[in-house]
Amino acid sequence: MALRIEDSAVRTDTGRQRNANEDSVFTRAELFVVADGMGGAQAGEVASRTAVSAFEGELRPGPPERVLEQTIKAANRAIHQQAQGDPNLAGMGTTTTAAIVDPAAEEVAIGHVGDSRAYRYRRGKLERLTRDHSLVEEMRRKGQLTDAQAEDHPQRSIITRALGPEPEVEVDLQTVPAQAGDVFLICSDGLTTMLDDEHIARLLSRASSMESAVRALVDEANRAGGRDNITVIAFRLGDPDRAPAGEEGATLIGPSAAEAGLSATEVKKRAAAEAARQRREELEARPRHRRLRTAAKVLVPLLIIAALLFGAWYGNRQVWFLGTDSGGRVALYRGVPYELPLGIKLYSERYSIPVQTTALSGRRLDAVTGHSLRSRSDAVQLLEEIEREQRNAARAAVEKEAAEREAKAKQEEAATREAGEEAAKEPTPPQKKQGGK
User: Whole domain around residue 363: which residue ranges?
Assistant: First the structure.
């Protein structure tokens, strides 16, 4: 049994904090590509556009994985050559995640470089198919970070593999099985830095179409802060032999209706029988309705209380603040800085940075010890600024100390040289002759 793409949609957005969109996207028939450029000015846009342009022409025939690998490597060479030939484009690069649907084989092939992602949503479960080529992901795989710490780490945007920086690039390739009802999602990290996988799955489960899905994902990422460009592709696979939902049977008119036993007399008889059946069901349902009304009087207040509790819990998860961990380091916390009786904490530590709170002063110290409530993006940005300032201060202190040591060494060297010169100027005392009278 073959598959078909029964619905697909694309949406890209600049986000709330960027002035230009350096993401590029391309779709055609069974091909879907997302690229997230980097490099400053317009270099990132050039890199991502070059990456997707490699897929626009006639692709080489062959197995989907080989086609993806050849095309992505060709794009890498083109970007690298452009960067080498134009000083304004030096250092540019881009991520790339591409998928080719093979309906006959009921498979989807994926080629991937960077930290854009591909997901498969099946029966209410969202599965990440790609592995980020990033510093934080490598630390997580080595056990140096937990999943929760990796989710909000300030250095999660540092990638370890991209198209463009080197003349050759290694492409991650895989082929995953597909079935009717599967939804595949390809996106730039502008989505996944703002929304976790659980949130993405929840939005997909509520979507009535792929267009409503990508719109909800982009809008929600912007509401969460929109710190980067956001690009999303979503497509759903279906069974080509299944009739569309809600399709009616053929309408029968005149002789065809009589042949089917639907004469005027027969229609009246059936209508009367149906009315009698509905009346009996209504009479039987009355006692049940009374029981339902009684149960509703009890359940409605409980549901209201549950809704209020859920609202408080959900709201608590959207609030962040800075504080000090058990080791005296500046840390990021989720929730509100309060504790309930019995030791119930309304907050949880996500991660800390190698900066002691006692090393801070002025407004930075107030920001950490004051526990002001912030959005996640604001809290993470402040944490990054504190770490960067302390790193710069430490570097300046080291440079100052080195300069002082060098100056001291020069003074000592000069003093030693001066002492030697003075000693050379002093006359040599006369020597007494020995022997004889």
Answer: 320-391
